[in-house]
């Protein structure tokens, strides 16, 4: 949120020194003031002070009439038609009255109430958003560059909900961003179809809508059946929160059954859901929309054991808690890494990491981070899935290709083949270009933070960088 003075939007009064009687002049000023308001806003809009909307910026460009009209329509979607009728023909040419109502109603639901504050995105926030959107939708460059983006907020007690709003300049006139609105409504329509198929328990419809990396009819149906069973037993479809509402991404979370909600928590939009919610991602890639609904995410206790050829078994939790157990007992060889030559070394060092260590033996390798106090944290354990290796997880020996992995774990593709084996410990599959299972690695959440720096030193570990 852009920092600055927190002042109410609207017109400010000026102070005049006058010698003549005061009342006639005050009445005249008041009548002129009312007349100006009636021109600038439709009857509903008597300035933002009436709506209780605040701005966190002193930039006068934020007080455009169109922006205030849209804020009012979001706060009171049932008045959107009345507000739309006050638009100029140029603004009306961008969106229809029905589109405005649907868009404002959607934002009202996402905010769970009327707009109470707004601000422009900071330069850093805009660049971050631009990078995310253009990653899968490069054609959006021109649209984003011509838009002015705002955060809009709704506050309910200790909770703050936030969403994006986009206006656009066309030939010197501020208008609604047609593409921005229509892409969001398109994503929402897809989401409605998806949740309708779940509520109606329509297996065939759901099978066609959900995400599947392999377009296999039987696999899709298995996913649909498992999804319906999961929603019936776990998900409360009466409790939903919209976390992200952008043209390229819609993230909706539903509450879990028999889970107490945290009334004092912060469920700000554009943040991430908690573990007490089930989140569904609707992602746009060009003209296609993909649903990522991570059914079955959670613990896989059968995957949490490693077996050495000697017959000794190691618990994954035990190894991550104390990697010395594996390093010493199996006599793994160390390989030094020259971190100081890497461009990120200064940043890593400032975070307390002194060095990385790499240990290997035929079929297995380990990566660790070491802090300046000498404390060591295991980043990953990588294995090759062949019976002749020193270490194996017997449960994974028969998963020879991508199809076999999906047969065993139907929703592995939703999480990019990363399964949470235990809290904070994940198993990641990596495949060859021919979709054969090349290797798999157990990794910690810390690996996500330092993987790029580690990979810079060991090219063979590029496979474990999550794209």
Helix content: 25-40%
Count of distinct strands: 20
Q: Profile the largest sheet.
A: 7 strands, antiparallel
Distance between the ends: 28 Å
Q: What kind of oligomer do you see? A: single chain
Number of helices: 16
Q: What coarse outline follows from CA principal-axis ratios?
A: elongated
Spans with pLDDT under 50 lasting ≥5 residues?
1-51, 57-62, 260-274, 459-467
Q: What Rg do the Cα atoms give?
A: 28 Å
Strand content: 25-35%
Global structural class? alpha+beta
Strand order of the largest sheet: 13-14-15-16-20-19-18
Mean pLDDT: 76
Question: What does the model show?
Answer:
Residues 1-51, 57-62, 260-274 and 459-467 have low confidence and may be disordered. A hairpin with a 5-residue loop joins strand 19 (425-431) and strand 20 (437-444). The protein is of the alpha+beta class and 467 residues long. Strands 13-14-15-16-20-19-18 form a seven-stranded antiparallel β-sheet. A six-stranded mixed β-sheet has the order 1-2-3-4-5-6. It has helices at residues 22-40, 48-51, 65-75, 80-85, 89-92, 97-111, 123-136, 141-145, 178-199, 203-209, 217-234, 316-321, 324-329, 345-350, 402-408, 445-455, and strands spanning 7-8, 54-55, 117-120, 147-156, 159-170, 173-176, 235-245, 249-256, 277-285, 288-292, 305-308, 313-315, 333-336, 353-361, 364-371, 376-383, 391-392, 418-422, 425-431, 437-444. Helix 3 packs across helix 6 (97-111) and helix 9 packs antiparallel against helix 10 (203-209).
């Amino acid at each position: 949120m852009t920092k600055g003075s927190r002042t109410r939007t609207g017109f400010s009064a000026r102070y005049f020194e006058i010698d003549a009687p005061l009342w006639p002049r005050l009445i005249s000023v008041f009548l002129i003031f009312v007349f100006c308001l009636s021109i600038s806003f439709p009857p509903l809009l008597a300035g933002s002070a009436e709506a209780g909307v605040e701005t966190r910026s002193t930039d006068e460009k934020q007080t455009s009439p169109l922006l205030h009209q849209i804020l009012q329509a979001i706060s009171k979607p049932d008045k959107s038609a009345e507000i739309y009728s006050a638009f100029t023909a140029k603004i009306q040419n961008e969106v229809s009255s029905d589109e405005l109502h649907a868009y404002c109603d959607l934002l009202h639901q996402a905010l769970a109430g009327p707009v109470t504050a707004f601000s422009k995105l900071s330069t850093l926030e805009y660049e971050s958003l631009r990078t995310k959107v253009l990653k899968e939708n490069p054609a959006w460059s021109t649209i984003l560059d011509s838009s002015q983006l705002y955060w809009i907020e709704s506050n309910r007690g200790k909770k703050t909900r936030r969403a994006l709003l986009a206006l656009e300049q066309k030939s010197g006139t501020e208008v609604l961003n047609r593409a921005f609105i229509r892409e969001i409504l398109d994503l929402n329509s897809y989401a409605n179809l998806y949740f309708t198929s779940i509520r109606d328990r329509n297996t065939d419809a759901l099978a066609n809508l959900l995400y599947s990396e392999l377009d296999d009819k039987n696999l899709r149906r298995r996913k649909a059946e498992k999804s319906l069973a999961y929603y019936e037993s776990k998900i409360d479809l009466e409790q939903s929160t919209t976390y992200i509402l952008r043209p390229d991404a819609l993230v909706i979370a539903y509450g879990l059954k028999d889970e107490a909600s945290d009334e004092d928590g912060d469920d700000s939009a554009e943040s991430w859901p908690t573990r007490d919610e089930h989140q569904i991602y609707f992602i746009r890639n060009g003209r296609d929309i993909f649903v990522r609904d991570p059914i079955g995410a959670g613990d896989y206790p059968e995957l949490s054991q490693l077996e050495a050829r000697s017959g000794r078994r190691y618990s994954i939790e035990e190894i991550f808690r104390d990697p010395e157990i594996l390093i010493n007992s199996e006599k793994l060889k160390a390989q030094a890494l020259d971190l100081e030559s890497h461009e990120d070394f200064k940043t890593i060092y400032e975070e307390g990491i002194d060095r990385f260590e790499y240990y290997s033996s035929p079929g297995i390798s380990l990566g660790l981070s070491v802090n300046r106090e000498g404390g060591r944290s295991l980043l990953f354990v990588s294995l090759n899935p062949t019976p002749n290796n020193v270490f194996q997880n017997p449960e994974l020996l028969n998963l020879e290709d991508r199809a076999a992995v999906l047969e065993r774990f139907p929703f592995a593709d939703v999480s990019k083949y990363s399964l949470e084996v235990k809290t904070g410990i994940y198993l990641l599959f990596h495949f060859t270009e021919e979709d054969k299972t090349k290797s798999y690695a157990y990794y910690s959440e810390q690996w996500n933070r330092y993987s790029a720096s580690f990979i810079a030193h060991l090219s063979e570990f590029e496979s474990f960088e999550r794209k």
